[in-house]
Write a structure and sequence with these properties.
about 180 residues; alpha/beta; 6 helices
């Protein structure tokens, strides 16, 4: 099935998405990779707030290359999601509703996804230049000292992805 989804994700969107569905996402998402996830965990351990409202958010595991002249952002392809797996269950428990990346997820992440009713989207690796054309706005939110791994807020239009793992734990990677 193919769906055009306006972000933020609604509970109905999440319920209706199934592993293997093609989606086009429009709205705000955040970027965070390994170093940003580590800092967010440290902030949670200190009982400090996170640099953005995690509840209801979609996080894209991506660190862009520098923007070329006339572009909002450089190449913006997904990074391997499993590198964030040790941090993700606590973020899902705080209300994060979606993740975008590439590759398999751990059993702990899938369990947390089921428990919290959220979804994991896969973006096509190696297509960062094409994906960047869907990014219409980009602003730095936190951890600017991390360079490409800083957290950014993006506005995307018709960002293509595939539901890799749905809220019931159906896993496209396990079934293919």
């Amino acid at each position: 099935m193919e769906r055009h989804i306006k972000l933020p994700l609604t509970e109905q969107d999440i319920r209706e998405l199934h592993a293997g569905d093609y989606v086009y996402l429009t709205g705000e998402i955040y970027t965070a990779r390994d170093a940003a996830h580590k800092r967010m965990k440290e902030a949670l351990d200190r009982k400090s707030g996170l640099p953005f409202e995690i509840s209801g958010s979609v996080v894209y595991y991506m660190g862009p290359s520098p923007a070329r002249e006339g572009r909002v952002i450089g190449s913006a392809g997904p990074t391997t999601s499993s590198r964030m797996d040790r941090y993700v269950p606590s973020l899902l428990d705080l209300g994060m509703k979606g993740m975008i990346g590439k590759g398999k997820r751990s059993a702990q992440v899938i369990d947390a996804m089921r428990r919290n009713r959220c979804v994991y989207f896969a973006a096509v690796g190696g297509a960062g230049a094409l994906l960047s054309k869907c990014i219409k706005k980009s602003e730095s939110v936190a951890y600017e000292d991390l360079g490409t791994e800083a957290i950014r807020k993006l506005y995307v239009e018709d960002f293509p992805a595939i539901v890799a793992i749905d809220s019931e734990g159906r896993d496209l990677y396990a079934s293919v």
